[in-house]
Amino acid sequence: MTNSFADFMKAKMILVIGSNMTEAHPVAATFVKDAAIGGAELIVVDPRRTDLVDFAKMHVPLKVGSDVALINSVMNVLIEENLYDKTYVENCTVGFGELREKVLEYPPERAAEITGVSADTIRALARRLASVKPAMLMYTLGITEHICGVNNVMSCANLQMLLGNVGFECGGVNPLRGQNNVQGACDMGALPNVFPGYQRVDNADARAKFAKAWNVASLPDKPGMMMPTMMENLTKGKVKAFYVFGENLANTEPDIHHVEHCLQSAEFLVCQDIFPTETTRFAHVILPAAAWSENDGTFTSSERRVNRVRTASVAPGQAKPNWWIFKEIARRMGHAWTSSSAREIWDNEVSVLAPSMAGIKYRRLEGDGIQWPAPNEEHCGTPTLHRDGKFTCGLGVLKPIDWIPPAEVPDEEYPLVLSTGRRLYHYHTRTQTGRSPGINDLLGEETADISAADARKLGVADGEMVLVKSRRGKVKVRARVTHQVPEGLVWMAFHFREACANWLTNPVYDPITQTAEYKACAVRIDRLT
Amino acid sequence: MSQTFILNGKETPFTPGQMILDAARNGGVEIPTLCYLKGAAPTGACRICCVEVKGARSLMAACSTPVTAGMEVTTNSELVHRARKMNVEFLLASGRHNCLMCEANGQCKLQDLSYFYKITKLQFREKDEKDIYPTEDQNPFIVRDFSRCILCGRCVQACNEVMVNRAISQGYRGAESKIVTGGDSPYNESECVFCGQCVDVCPVGALTEKKAKGLGRPWETQKIRTTCPYCGVGCQQLLHVKDGKIVKVTAVEGAQPNQGRLCVKGRFAYDFIYSDERLNTPLIRQKNGEFREASWDEALDLVASKFKQIIASDGPDAIAGVSCARSINEDSYQMQKLFRAVIGTNNIDHCART
Q1: Distance (Å, rounded) from C-alpha A25 to C-alpha A177?
Q2: Rounded Cα distance, B25 and A413, in Å
Q3: Strand arrangement, sheet containing B245-251
């Protein structure tokens, strides 16, 4: 997030796009609701009528996968009607000419055909957005989980820069991250192209610096594979050994049949986890790890805040801290690492090697944590990035972007769109929530959420078991008829193995990030009788 | 120039719009409260914060009376204390406030006030058993004991004004008053989303956590601050630990980013760590496909030797790994270091973009 959660309650105008916050980030949503009942304008752009819509001045129910067309068209109106921030665009950005040319191809009438949102609504949305400054944009996986995820994100950034909203409190582009430490795992360099602190592996100076710190002669200079490529390469024999730490890929990745084939193909699969999962079934070695409350350490939240995690209970049996396991493997491969606690790893390595985190030390994390960048120990952290429109990279880049449809769209055989996500009570594949007594009582099974109109067409009653089929697979699941879902859409989560949406989802990926298109594939629903 | 009022005879500054309660607090005078909930509109329901205001016809509720310049406020007169004590006595008779059997014993504002006012016996007749609504605890997490409810309304405010889940409200009238869900149904059949904020703000033992029942009194538990393991908001929690075991989770008051709030997962889904299904020993797959237990030495030696063998035969890029977006930073750091510096490949990723 460019901004902070503390901004949510103070914001005057909030645009939520592709985020079912009340279920996926419930506490963040309370601050948005507080702002809305306090008078802030809330706009919700989502195919579904999510709970947040109850608090919104405007709900824009766009068709799944039409985000770029909608945002381009909004920018078209902003430019055509002279509603954008000219001073900001001139002083703080580059690329306006190219952007302008592109969005002029998206007049509201054309976008209406793509998005299913009327031209008048698109105009009203643009005018409303331009009426209050700054406006805060929040998004989640509704934006990223498309083959055009990167383009969707850049469209959000384009819009916010055109409105002059980036670099101010209560403004910015704010992805709410799904996992407690997905921000941190990125920051730590668990990515194929960067070292900790986003220092590129193809930069010789960065490599020299890390090689020295890690006491090795050299480091690999070629960016590695992203996860989907790794899995694919398991079947081709290009990847022989696969080390899966704390992920249940057999349920979380699209097209489970294919994923399991990949896992099955591994010559040597190491799983390191706290529970046996659908993925550990394929392992050759399973290493038992200490869990959340059995470790000292840090998580980094969506707002770039490094927070302490503290030990409160003992790990069962022989389970060990993950950092210890990695250190032991390194030792057995001839590398003696000195740090022997999470604190030593952070204070003596991470904060020394990552300039944006240089000022963050454990002794400074007793209270509310620190938001990076915090370049020195006197720095109190950065609640808002790109302050006053002064971008970290210099000028903000406006990028012309074209809309493309999802890889798989409905047809005669598979006439419905399946979109997927998370529900309130469970978390991912239920390895944790499914084992926390009580949670299963509140949500004990998956449902296929459909509109009343489709239920009528299909002759399916609320609560009836149905078969949802895609080109990849089929699941038997209970239909849930709800006003949240528009006609033509089926909505499911991936919490329960038997009726996991990922038996159906399409393994197609954004070409840059290899994020899968979990939000759109084509399915059909058949009655069982 | 700041304006002033007279607080217990002393000139005290206040900011226009401030209630007596806040202004007095700033002036170093604590006024007891029961129903007052910071951040919500004051209701003045419990009258425990009553104070004398010169010229007023009756005692005033400090939480909901704005200060005016020159106002003379007395918070500690005999009249004030007599009124507060009587209010406490009324509340004590409003249900069954038997502390021995109450989960809130030791963190109950009514208990504190009774103690402060040295109340040793009931002055008024207790409400009849038949007039008390039965306890509702059909749901897995929250016990609603109406015999202990003082109708202060903090739970209603937390639900409607703080979390804005709009699941409960004041229901019925007069002696029949009750905090209700829509249609007065049990929590698990209502709009309730089990954030548990109502339990958090309940000043007495009317709303308590089912899971924590009997596991530790507040003075027996150590409170350890940590960060929630679920979504990316990073809510700050207090783990209540007794004998090395987490018995309850609450939010850290006033901490960023959650400012004392939690959701159902953060508050109630902590105990997966105690599941019998935890992996507790290294396992190695045998030829027949079954797993057998192994020592750490054996398992780690196997991993290291297999990696070395693959590096020798197919090169370091034939090894790939995914890190965990749920575990601590230091774990991800170590894993990418293992891959880059030891194995010699950048084939390290995690579910960064999903």
Answers
A1: 9
A2: 69
A3: B222-227, B236-242, B245-251
List the 287-346 stretch of B: residues with Cβ below 8 A of A: 291, 294, 296, 299-308, 310, 314, 316-346
A with B: how many residue pairs have Cβ under 8 Å apart? 464
Provide CB contacts within 8 A for A308, sequence distance 6+.
A296, A297, A298, A362, A365, A366, A369, B225, B226, B227
Where in chain B are the domains? 3-76, 216-278, 283-349
The Cα–Cα gap between B71 and B58 comes to 15
DSSP state of A320: B
Residue A529 pLDDT class (50, 70, 90 cuts) = confident
Helix (H) / strand (E) element for B154: namely: helix B154-157
* Chain A residues within 8 A of B245 when measuring between CB atoms: 313
pLDDT at position A392: 85
Return the residue in A19, A181, A427, A514 with the most chain B beta carbons within 10 A, the one to mutate for interface testing. A181
Helix (H, G, I), strand (E, B) or coil at B295: coil
Homologous superfamily (CATH) of B216-278 is ADC-like domains (2.20.25.90)
Q: What is the CATH number of the domain that holds A357?
A: 3.40.50.740
Please answer whether residues A486 and A455 qualify as being in contact, where contact means their C-beta atoms are separated by less than 8 angstroms: no
Distance CA B155, CA A126 (A): 39
Predicted confidence at residue B54, as pLDDT, reads 96
Closest CA to A72 of A39, A53, A99, A32: A99
**Interfacial A residues in 358-397 facing B (CB < 8 Å):** 367-369
Contact call for residues A310 and B246 (beta carbons, < 8 A): no
- Contact list, B187 vs chain A (CB under 8 Å): none
Q: Does B253 touch chain A (CB under 8 A)?
A: no
Distance (Å, whole) CA B176 – CA A64: 50
Token couple for A321: 């801290």
Q: Do both A491 and A367 map to the same domain? A: no
Q: Is residue A228 part of a domain?
A: no
Q: How many domains would you assign to chain A?
A: 3
| CATH number of the domain to which A473 belongs | 2.40.40.20
**Cα separations (Å) of A270 from B293, B298, B347?**
15, 14, 15
- Residues of A with CB below 8 A from B353's CB? 144, 149, 510, 513-515
Which of B337, B251, B224, B260 lies closest to A292, judged by CA?
Answer: B224
Cβ pair A368:B304 closer than 8 A: no
For residue B310, the chain A residues in CB contact (below 8 A) are 240-241, 267-268
Residues of A in contact with B338 (CB under 8 A): 326, 329-330
CA angle, residues B222, B225, B226, in degrees to nearest 5: 130
Q: What is the pLDDT of residues A78-123, one digit of tens each?
A: 999 999 999 999 999 999 999 999 999 999 999 999 999 999 999 9
Return the pLDDT at B353: 73
